[in-house]
Write a structure and sequence with these properties.
The chain is an all-alpha fold. The protein contains 10 helices and no strands.
Length: about 190
């Protein structure tokens, strides 16, 4: 198995190739179905030799995982208003908007369909962000919900709607999830 993070260098030609290949993946997914995403097609679009792509990523699944990990890292800013409720509401609104983007959806669907690690590539950073907000609330001395429950109750419905539904999540619906979740958490305490 090729580890793209171990093989990529931060600058120079390697960074240019990585950027061109990532851009090629995004363009191809915007134009065609995920099944059309092949290493030769990506290489041709990126202007590199297919061997370069195979050497760095090994397979379309590994390439999609790298693109998704890069795309979903740091794209949504974690708010820090001093209130867990306000932070969660603002964060969920931003996640809902991001998941409604057609290019984001195409990448997510292709990555998830590429293999068992695809879902993690699309959600790992969001899990870390949610965990950071909950841990910050605990460090302030506030009562905070369990991270796993928050992931299931808050992110689960957003991702379900994005991937499986024709009705994307609205900002209001995302805020309502937070209100409902925190009320249920308090009632169980």
């Amino acid at each position: 198995m090729v580890d793209a993070s171990a093989q990529a260098r931060p600058g120079g030609r390697s960074a240019k190739v990585r950027a061109a290949v990532h851009r090629a993946v995004a363009e191809l997914l915007a134009e065609e179905s995920a099944e059309a995403l092949t290493i030769p097609a990506v290489a041709a679009r990126a202007g590199v030799h297919p061997t370069t792509v195979y050497r760095r990523w090994g397979s379309p699944a590994q390439l999609l995982n790298d693109v998704a990990t890069s795309r979903f890292s740091g794209d949504v800013v974690v708010p820090d208003s001093g209130s867990l409720t306000d932070d969660l509401e603002r964060w969920m609104e931003e996640v809902a908007v991001d998941l409604a983007d057609p290019d984001t959806l195409a990448l997510m669907r292709a990555t998830i369909g590429s293999g068992p690690d695809g879902g993690c590539a699309c959600t790992a950073d969001r899990h870390a962000q949610l965990s950071a907000m909950i841990e910050r609330e605990r460090s302030r001395g506030g009562e905070a919900p369990d991270v796993e429950n928050a992931i299931d109750f808050l992110l689960g419905p957003l991702y379900y709607r994005a991937i499986f539904s024709a009705q994307p999540a609205s900002r209001d619906w995302a805020r309502h999830l937070v209100t409902t979740f925190l009320a249920a958490t308090r009632a169980l305490s």
